[in-house]
């Protein structure tokens, strides 16, 4: 093996020391399985001995890739919602794991849409290889317009007939229906929907509850607005319940638009001296880790966030390779615990 009088500084230097081509060195240091384990270990040992590292920026420039995926959370429907929301954090964690497994970094943006160009600015930035959106918010038209020409875009959300953009998510309408049918089976007949319906996903959950009640010959549920911002949620829930009590409008079941709304609603009901589920049964939507730790444990509709993240990243990388990967609508699952 040829020895160098100076430390190895380039791929060619390491290649000469190892007796292989620079391409083999590059593949070995990237951990590619096309290089035999023995050769890979020998090259990695030489690189460590000479404190040699590949210039990742140069490699990405040659490949015309940044190695970064943009993850954006548009909040057109609720500007006060936090990134610390447990739903965002749970899905974001799964996405980060999937991207890391593919040797990509993540660039996170919390977006308050003040115009219709926010998504175009992200896709044209030159800083990312593709975009994952967490939620459609009230920005469906903007997302559709960008998706007509920008292919590496995958969205967590609902799939509608004729939709251009690739969406991964649960069948929200069916999930809302399942929650309503469960309450009906437990002999609840005066049911309310706790949550706003300004976003597509939440509107579909409300519509599914309406479907269940209509099939049972019951009137539509009371729809009670609750913001997703944590500092507003408890007071709005308390005001809704106090208004129902003062008007003499008794309810015995609540379908909450999310687990966080359900947990806050349960706390308020207990604070009013009511029992859950004895006086009022409560269901959530998401099945976050908190749902199984609450007291009472939350009955909810599960959307599999881990599987959803895997599907989003898989579809994105198919699109990065020029293949037109379809979206995915996952089936919801009723998780019965103690609250209903």
Features:
41% helix; 3 domains; six-stranded mixed sheet; 340 residues; Rossmann fold; six-stranded parallel sheet; 12 helices; alpha/beta
Task: Describe, in short, the structure shown.
It is built from twelve helices and twelve strands. The protein has 340 residues and is α/β, with parallel strands linked by helices.
Number of strands: 12
Full CATH superfamily name of the largest domain: Response regulator
**Biggest sheet, spatial arrangement of strands:** 2-1-3-4-5-11
CATH architecture of the largest domain: 3-Layer(aba) Sandwich
Q: What oligomerization state is this entry in?
A: single chain
- Tally the helices: what do you get? 12
Structural class: alpha/beta
Characterization of the model:
The chain has 340 residues and is an alpha/beta fold. It folds into three domains: 11-54, no CATH class; 68-170 and 305-332, Response regulator (Rossmann fold); 172-302, Response regulator (Rossmann fold, 3-Layer(aba) Sandwich). It has helices at residues 11-18, 22-29, 37-49, 56-62, 86-101, 118-123, 140-147, 172-185, 200-215, 233-246, 259-271, 305-320; strands at residues 68-74, 105-111, 130-134, 153-156, 166-170, 191-194, 222-224, 253-256, 281-286, 299-302, 328-330, 333-335. The chain has a six-stranded parallel sheet. Strands 7-6-8-9-10-12 form a six-stranded mixed sheet, sandwiched between helices. Strand 8, helix 11 and strand 9 (281-286) form a beta-alpha-beta unit. The termini are far apart.
């Amino acid at each position: 093996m040829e020895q160098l009088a100076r430390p190895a500084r380039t791929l060619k230097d390491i290649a000469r020391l190892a007796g292989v081509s620079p391409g083999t060195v590059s593949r070995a240091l990237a951990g590619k399985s096309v290089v035999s384990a023995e050769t890979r270990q020998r090259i990695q040992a030489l690189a460590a001995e000479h404190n040699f590292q590949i210039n990742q920026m140069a490699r990405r420039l040659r490949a015309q890739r940044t190695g970064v995926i943009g993850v954006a959370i548009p909040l057109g429907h609720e500007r006060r919602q936090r990134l610390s929301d447990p739903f965002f954090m749970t899905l974001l964690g799964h996405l980060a794991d999937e991207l890391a497994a593919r040797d990509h970094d993540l660039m996170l943006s919390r977006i308050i849409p003040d115009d219709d160009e926010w998504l175009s600015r992200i896709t044209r930035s030159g800083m990312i290889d593709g975009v994952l959106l967490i939620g459609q918010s009230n920005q469906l038209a903007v997302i559709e317009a960008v998706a007509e020409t920008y292919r590496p875009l995958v969205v967590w959300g609902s799939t509608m007939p004729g939709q251009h953009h690739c969406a991964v998510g649960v069948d929200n309408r069916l999930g809302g229906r399942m929650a309503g049918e469960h309450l009906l089976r437990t002999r609840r007949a005066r049911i309310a929907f706790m949550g706003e319906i300004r976003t597509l996903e939440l509107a579909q959950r409300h519509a599914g509850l309406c479907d269940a009640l209509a099939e049972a010959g019951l009137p539509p549920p009371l729809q009670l607005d609750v913001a997703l911002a944590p500092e507003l949620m408890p007071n709005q829930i308390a005001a809704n319940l106090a208004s129902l009590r003062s008007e003499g409008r008794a309810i015995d079941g609540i379908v909450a638009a999310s687990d966080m709304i359900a947990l806050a609603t349960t706390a308020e009901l207990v604070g009013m001296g009511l029992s859950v589920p004895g006086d009022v049964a409560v269901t959530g939507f998401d099945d976050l880790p908190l749902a199984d730790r609450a007291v009472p444990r939350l009955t909810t509709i599960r959307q599999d966030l881990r599987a959803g993240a895997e599907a989003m990243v898989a579809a994105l990388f198919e699109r990065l390779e020029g293949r037109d990967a379809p979206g995915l609508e996952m089936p919801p699952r009723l998780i019965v615990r103690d609250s209903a």
